[in-house]
Amino acid sequence: MSTKAISLTQLQEKVRTITLPLIVLLVWWVVSHREIVSPHFLPRPETVVGAFFTLVEEGILSFNLKMSFTRVISGFLLGISFGLVLGIAMGLSRTVEKLLRPLFDAVRQVPMLGFIPLIILWCGVNETSKVVFIAIGAYYSVVLNTFEGIRSVKKEYLEVAQVFEFGRFNLLRKFVLPAALPSILTGLRLGLSKSWMLVVGAELFTATKGGIGSMMAEGREQWRMEIVFVGIIIVGLVGFVLDQLLKVLEGRLLRWRKAID
Amino acid sequence: MNVPEVKIRVNYNEGKVEPLKEVIEASPSNSLGNAAVLGWRILLDSFNIFPGPLPGIVLRLGDKALGLIVPLLLFLAWDLVTRYELTPPQLLPLPKQVAVTFLDMVRSGELLVNLKISLLRVTAGFFAGSFTGLVLGTAMGLSKKIESYVGPLFHSIRQVPLLGWIPLLILWLGMGETFKVFFIAIGAFYAMTLNTFQGIRDVPGEYLEVARVFEYNRLQLFRKIVFPAALPSILTGVRIGLSLSWFLLVGAEFTGASEGIGYSIAWARQIFQTDVVIAGVFVIGVIGLLMDRVVTLLEGYLLRWRRKTFTA
Amino acid sequence: MGESGALQLSNLNKKFTVEGEKISIIENVNLTVSPGEFISIIGPSGCGKTTLLRMIIGLESDYEGDIILAGKKLNGPSLNRGVVFQDHRLLPWLTIEKNVGLGLEGKKYARNRKQIIQDHLELVGLRGFEKAYPYQLSGGMAQRASIARALVNRPEILLLDEPLGALDALTRMYMQQELEKIWQQEGGITMIMVTHDVEEAIYLSDKVVIMSNRPGKLKKTIPVPLARPRDRASYDFIKIKEEVLREFHLQAEHQFSYAI
Ligand SMILES: Nc1ncnc2c1ncn2[C@@H]1O[C@H](COP(=O)(O)OP(=O)(O)O)[C@@H](O)[C@H]1O
Ligand SMILES: [Mg+2]
C-alpha cells in the first residue's frame, strides 16, 4: 500500500535529525584544521578520538569512572534511604507533614552547591563529604515525589481497601505503595541524574584525586582541551545511560500501566 | 487564670489538659495543633497578656505553629551544644555569633556589595538564557520541521550535567564575567526551551478547532490561543530556570571570582570563618525563597483565569 | 436464614455540609430487605442513591438512624457485604486474578484460594483472563471482574451501584441476563442494585423502590411478581413499567421498541 510513502517520510525525518549534527561536525573539522581557532581552544576531532583511546588503553578512564561510580552509588543509596523514609512518613501522616514540611521546604531553598563549604568544614575534604553532598541531591527529589505520590493515591482505591477490611500494613503494601510507585520511581530517576551531576561538581570543587570530574579539572589546568572534551562526552553518555537504565526498571515495574505511545 | 474563657478542662486522673469541644470546633487544625494553641493560651493567660478569648487568627496559626516546633528544637540543640562546647567552636559557632556576624556583614555593606554583584550576574544570565530558550522552544513547538532539525542535537547536548561544562567554558571564555553569565544562562535556557516546547505541544486540539471556526490567522492563533494555553507551562519554565540560575551562580562563583555571595562563602570556608559560611548559606537560601515567591506572585497574576475555574 | 437475616434501614437521615451549609440528602428512609431478595433502587441522578448505598456498605459515617443486619447494628464496612462500584475500581497494578483475590486475605483461604478465584472467574465468564491487567479488558469485562471480586468471599449482601451504567445498550442487556444467572447460582444472596434504568430494574428485581429527588425519600415500593426469565415485551412487564414511569410523571412511549 503506502509503505513506500511512509519510508520516505521516515527517511526525511532521519535526514533532518542528522543534518545539524553533521553541520556542527563539519564546521568543527574545518575550523580546527584550518586553525581558524587555535588548537588550544579547539582540538581537532581526531585528536579527541585519539585522546579517548589513549585514556582507555592506559586505564585512566576506567579508573576515574570507577571512582565516580562508587561515590554516586553510595551517595545515591544513602540519599534515597533517608528520602524514602521521610517521604513516606510525611505522606502517611498529616502531623509529620505539618511538623517537618516547613523546615524541609526552607532548607530546600538553599542551592545545593551552597552546602559544599559547610559539608567540607564539617566532614573534611574526603570521601565522606562528597558522598554526603551527592546524597542531598538524591534526597530532595525522592522526598518530594514520594510524598506527592502517596498523597495523590485515589480515594476510590482506598475505599476498596476499606470494603475488604485491610489492615494498616496491607493497606500500605497493596494499595498505597503500588499507587504511589510511578511517582516514587520518577523521584528516583530525578535523584539519580542529580547525583550524577553533583558527583561531577563535587570532584570539580573539592580538590580530589580520581573521578571523572577531577580528570576534567586536571585537563583544564594542563590546557589539555582534548581531555576536557572526552570528559564532557563521557559524562553526558553515562548520565544518559543511567537514566535509560532506570527507565527500563520503570517499564518493568509499571507493566500494569497502559503503554502511552 | 480565667478558666471559663479558656474553655479547657483539666483531667487530673490522667494528668492531661482536655480542650472543650467548642475550642476544637473553632479551630480547623488537628489535635496536636490544638494542643499547641491551647498551650499558648494557657501561657498567655497566666501572664495575663491576652485576657479573653484568643483572636481567630491565632487559632488559624495552629497548623503553622506546628512547623516551628522542629526548627526551634534544632535551634535549641545548636545553642546548647555550642554553649557547652560539645563541638569545636571553629566548626560550629554560637548562634549568637552567627547573628552578630550577619549584622556586621549587613552594616559594613559587605553583604550588600556581594549580593549586588551576584544578583546582577543572575539577572543577566537568566534573561539571556530564558529569552533564547523561549524563542527556541516556541520555534520547536510550532514547527515539527524545526523540532526534527534541532531537537536531537539539543537533547543530546542536554545529557551533559550542567556542572560538567565548567572546565570547558573556563578554557574558552576565561574566568571573567562572560563565563559566569554564559554558564548561568545555560540553566535558564534548558528550562525555558523544554517547558515552552512542551506547553505549546500540549495545547488541546479542541482549542485549535475553536480557532479554525473563527478563521484566525497564524498570528491570531498564536496570540489568542497557543500562547495563553502554553503560559502555565512557560511560567513553570521561568520558575525552574530561575532556581537553576541561582544554583549555577553559586557554582560559577566557587570556581573563579573575587566577589559575590558564593565567592565570600567559599573564601570564608578556606579561612575557617564558619560563622560567615553559615550566615552566607542562610542568605542564599532566603534569596532563593524570595525568587520563588516572586514567580508565584507573577503566576497568580498572569494566570488569574485559572484560579477562578479552580475554586468554582 | 429466615427473617432474622433481614436488612433493616430505619429512620435514616443524612446531611452533607456544602460551603458551610447543611443540606439534607437522605430523609427519613425506612426499608426492610429480606434475605435472598433482589431489590432495585431507582431515582433521578443526584437524588442520593449512591449515598444511601455507601451508608449500607459502611463508607459513610455521621448519619442519623440505624442500619441493622440480622438484628445487629452495622458499623463500618465488613466482608459480609460486597460491593460493585459504578466505576469498576479494579486496581490497575494487579492482574485480574489478583484483583479478584483481594477479598481472600488471611489463612482461612490459604489452601483453596486459587480454586475460589477460578470458580468465580468461571462464573462471570472471564476464564483465560487471569493474567490480564485491567487496561486490557473492555468495559463489560472489567465490570464482570469487579462482580467476581465482590462475590469471592460469599457476602450475604451484594450492593451494586449502577453496575451496568457505563455499558452500551446491547452489552447491558446481555449483562442483565448474566447478573440474574449469578444471583440464582449464588443461592440465597441478597442483591441491592442502584440504577436509573427502569427496564433494568423491572427485569431483575423482586421489588423496585422509587426514590424522589431533593431530599432523597423513598416514595413507593412496587413489587414485580413475574416469573423469570422475564420477557421485556410482555403485557405484564409493560404494565409495571408504566406504573413506575408514572411515578416520574412520564409516559411509556416506545413500548415495543425492544421487540424488533
Ligand atoms: N461528600 C459529599 N459532600 C457534599 N455533597 C455530596 C457528597 N457526596 C454527594 N453529595 C451530594 O449529594 C447528592 C446525592 O449524591 P449521590 O448519592 O451521588 O446521587 P446519585 O447516586 O443518586 O446520583 C448530590 O447532590 C451530591 O452533590
Ligand atoms: Mg450515583
Structure report:
The complex is a heterotrimer of chains A (261), B (312) and C (260). Chain A is 81% helix and 0% strand. With 261 residues, chain A is mainly alpha-helical. Chain A has a single domain (55-260), classed as Orthogonal Bundle (MetI-like fold), CATH 1.10.3720. In chain A, helix 6 packs antiparallel against helix 8 (168-205). The two termini of chain A are 24 Å apart. The model of chain A has no long low-confidence stretch (mean pLDDT 87). By secondary structure, chain B is mostly helical. Chain B folds into 2 domains: 5-87, no CATH class; 107-311, Orthogonal Bundle (MetI-like fold). In chain B, strand 1 (8-11) and strand 2 (16-19) form a beta hairpin. The model of chain B is unreliable at 1-33, 42-55 and 308-312 (pLDDT under 50). Chain C has 260 residues and is an alpha/beta fold. In chain C, the strands form 2 sheets. In chain C, strands 6-7-8-3-9-10 form a 6-stranded mixed beta sheet, sandwiched between helices. In chain C, strands 2-1-4-5 form a 4-stranded antiparallel beta sheet. The model of chain C is unreliable at 255-260 (pLDDT under 50). Chains in contact: A-B, A-C. The interface between A and B is large, with 57 and 61 residues. Bound molecules: adenosine-5'-diphosphate (ADP) and magnesium ion (MG). Adenosine-5'-diphosphate (ADP) is lined by residues 16, 18, 25, 45-51 of chain C.
Name the strands of the widest sheet of chain C in spatial order: 6-7-8-3-9-10
Number of beta-strand segments of chain C: 10
Could you say which small molecules are bound to this protein?
adenosine-5'-diphosphate, magnesium ion
- Rounded to the nearest angstrom, the distance between the terminal CA atoms of chain A is 24 Å
Question: How many discrete structural domains of chain A?
Answer: 1
The CATH homologous superfamily name of chain A equals MetI-like
Helical proportion of chain A?
over 70%
Tell me what portion of residues of chain A adopts beta-strand conformation.
Answer: under 5%
How would you classify the helix and strand content of chain A by structural class? Answer: mainly alpha
The top-level CATH class of chain A is: Mainly Alpha
